[in-house]
Amino acid sequence: MIVVIDERELVTEGYHSLFNREGVASAGFAPDEFGEWVETVADEELKAVSAFLLGQCEEGDIRAQRIRERSAAPLIALSERNSLDDTLRLFEWGVDDVVRKPVHIREILARITAIRRRAQQEAATFTEIGAMRIYFDGRDPEIEGQPLPLPRRERRILEYLASNPTRRVTKTQIFNAIYGIFDEDVEENVVESHISKLRKKLREKLGFDPIDSKRYLGYRLADT
């Protein structure tokens, strides 16, 4: 989920629509609402945020240090002024990147991916579970060396399961990571439909179902 912070509701709604077209969950906040939210939101919900986009806000409304204390997600400023002083001020304030508007939504997504990739250079960009190699940079998984093309949300679910190898994750946690914690237009049960389709594809390639589920406890990936 991408969080957009801007004092103009029309702007946050516009970005929500654009991200939705790309199949990416998002949520919009006014600066004062965001400040309260980031102070009180549960850690599990905050983990669903893949990036923060900072639009028009009064200086001092948003504390970069507090965001950094609670999340390592990229923080990108959207600038409407072609000013070197403004750009340098934003970097000093603590953002990871400054993007001048107008900018295509796909460029924003590409910049988020690039920042996350740089941050993960010393960490693993994939994990191997049995015959599966599951990437965390947007690439399709591989099974015995052969790519397995998956729709975006099925791939994200597989990545999320793979990123939590030592514990089970609940349907609610998967939903929050894939759709965002504020999407009221989609029922949580859609996760079961995605997992059912994902299971079928993995079973066809592996010869068994690698998604182990237990009622009330959640899901995890197994290698046999």
UniProtKB/TrEMBL annotation:
Segment forming the signal sequence: none
Pfam families found in the cross-reference section: Trans_reg_C (PF00486)
PROSITE patterns xref list: OMPR_PHOB (PS51755), RESPONSE_REGULATORY (PS50110)
Top-rank lineage group of the source organism: Bacteria
DNA-binding region per UniProt: 124-223
SUPFAM superfamilies assigned: C-terminal effector domain of the bipartite response regulators (SSF46894), CheY-like (SSF52172)
Record keywords: DNA-binding, Transcription, Transcription regulation
Annotated Response regulatory domain residues: 1-116
Domain OmpR/PhoB-type: 124-223
Name of the protein this chain belongs to: Response regulator transcription factor
